[in-house]
Write a structure and sequence with these properties.
By secondary structure, the protein is an alpha/beta fold. 34% of the residues lie in helices and 17% in strands. It binds flavin mononucleotide (FMN).
Length: 372
């Protein structure tokens, strides 16, 4: 079937004619159709495919997002030395919340071995729940969904914090994890997720990207184990999947996201085909939304710097293999670009990190621009 993709003015024109061509979905704030999925219809004999814009709402497993702008997790080092929420941390999110469909709160460490920096946010103990509850409470009035990213830094945890670093395979100062310790990790992530649920988050995101512990298991560059947690791809994703299954048990109707380090950008590292396979396995294990970023190469690799949407091709390649919504990210600077990516219909959400960090009103201005 041939489909014609419509621009915003064309959508508006169609709306004038909607009775005539039998479109009954109604309009959204952007003037396009309120629909989670592309709408197919017949217009003057053409098969017309009307795609949602970045301003259109979306529901995922019954959870409502007012638009498709996402603030990706960005560590601000504004927590207390114990990992507790501070007023400065809350204000950072509060100032940006109004215009966003989803905020993914920066990575919080699930146990003391997994801490990356001194003032990183933590979720390793029950006493941290009260502060996180206050953060959620302050964001809720904006009708913006808020999820918390859970992380273990693995070999990246600096031993200068006085705690031994651990990793799938020994590396510099990091000690190789024993099997009994690996088997405890799903429980550790699960407890952290329970705390996030107590705090009232709409969900959690498991951090599986940027060279942290779960990514270290996934990548053949950092995982040299000879047991069931190393070697072939199925073994290397065994721990991440076990973590997902355990966390899923704690989520009830709330959402479970996974930040997938899609490519290491290295010859011997993970490739997009591995991540297409892994993405499908993550969905089978219970992931509701996949958030696609870089692997061992990090979140902003030198070789991709300056290219608007630098990890979106990987997000699109994975989306083609899964039936859950996908978030794309990487150097998004302009509302036009964000909107075009969503309208092309390959991915479902667009994350804007540093642009929002620099300018708290970036998304408000983007919405104003797109509505004009
Ligand atoms: C200061 C800073 C802190 C970040 N912290 C995290 C983090 O906690 N978890 C994470 O998954 N990504 C983190 N990232 C990566 C961002 O989520 C995002 O993927 C990256 O900045 C690329 O998007 P952008 O080009 O829109 O900024 C961080 C990025 C920056 C700049």
């Amino acid at each position: 079937m041939n489909h014609v993709k419509l621009s915003l003015p064309e959508c508006r024109f169609l709306l004038h004619l909607q009775k005539g061509i039998g479109i009954t979905k109604g309009t959204s704030k952007s003037g396009c159709f309120l629909s989670d999925k592309p709408v197919n219809c017949n217009y003057l004999g053409l098969k017309v495919r009307i795609l949602p814009s970045v301003l259109d709402s979306i529901k995922v497993k019954g959870v409502f997002f007012k638009n498709r702008f996402v603030m990706p997790p960005m560590q601000g080092d504004h927590a207390t030395v114990e990992g507790g929420v501070t007023e400065k941390l809350i204000t950072f999110y509060e100032k940006r919340a109004e215009a966003l469909g989803l905020i993914i709160v920066e990575h919080s460490y699930v146990n003391l071995h997994g801490q990356l920096s001194k003032r990183q946010l933590g979720i390793y103990d029950d006493h941290l729940v009260a502060g996180l509850k206050e953060l959620v409470k302050r964001i809720q009035p904006f009708n913006t969904r808020i999820v918390l990213q859970l992380n273990h830094a693995g070999a990246k945890a600096p031993s200068r914090l006085g705690i031994e670093s651990v990793a799938p395979s020994a590396k510099e100062k990091a000690r190789e994890l024993r099997v009994d310790e690996i088997e405890m990790l799903p429980y550790t992530f699960g407890r952290a997720a329970e705390r996030a649920m107590q705090a009232g988050f709409d969900g959690v995101e498991i951090h599986g990207a940027h060279g942290f512990l779960l990514n270290q298991f996934y990548s053949p560059i950092t995982n040299h184990r000879q047991d069931e947690y190393g070697g072939g791809l199925d073994n290397r994703i065994r721990l991440p999947l076990a973590v997902v299954r355990e966390v899923k048990k704690k989520m009830g109707t709330r959402l479970l996201l996974y930040r997938l380090g899609s490519v290491d950008l290295a010859l011997m590292g993970t490739q997009i085909e591995d991540s297409q396979y892994f993405g499908k396995a993550l969905v089978n294990a219970g992931i509701d939304i996949l958030d696609v970023s870089g692997g061992l190469c990090g979140a902003v690799p030198d070789e991709l710097k300056g290219k608007e949407g630098f990890f979106i091709p990987q997000a699109e390649a994975i989306k083609a293999h899964v039936d859950v919504p996908v978030i794309g990210v990487g150097g998004v600077k302009t509302p036009q670009f964000a909107d075009r990516i969503i309208r092309e219909g390959q991915i479902d959400f667009i994350a804007v990190g540093r642009s929002l960090r620099k300018d708290a009103d970036w998304a408000l201005k983007a919405i104003k621009y797109l509505k004009a």
